[in-house]
Specification:
The chain is mainly beta. The protein has one domain. Helix content is 13%, strand content 37%. It is built from one helix and five strands; from the N terminus they run H-E-E-E-E-E. Strands 2-1-5-4-3 form a five-stranded mixed sheet, with no helix packed on it. The radius of gyration is 21 Å and the shape is elongated. The protein starts with 20 loop residues before the first helix and ends with a strand.
Length: 101
């Protein structure tokens, strides 16, 4: 039997009812970053005077651009990504000091 590439019909990936494109990407981001998942914890990666500070918090991480206060200091979330700790599955919000008055 001879194999011909033109004989092969591929309709992949096609799963009825399963999100594709932008919906699939959003679903994966929520799952990977823990967004919208109750009972999850996240980390905040914050600059300090003598280095960086990791703060653990309940819930989903704040989105990029969110303003937050820790103690009496104000921060802005630059991005959300994986924890900087090896083997840690929690998402981490990386922030910088808020320079706005």
């Amino acid at each position: 039997m001879t194999y011909h590439e033109e004989d092969r019909v591929v309709d992949w990936p096609h799963w009825p009812g399963r999100p594709t494109g932008a919906a699939q990407r959003q679903r994966l981001e929520r799952r990977l970053l823990g967004v919208g998942m109750p009972g999850r914890r996240h980390l905040l990666f914050l600059p300090g005077q003598a280095g960086y500070l990791l703060v653990e918090r309940e819930g989903s991480p704040p989105p990029a651009g969110a303003r937050l206060a820790v103690g009496d200091l104000a921060y802005v979330v630059a991005r959300v990504g994986p924890s900087p700790l090896p083997g840690d599955g929690r998402p981490c919000a990386f922030a910088h000091r808020d320079g706005t008055p």
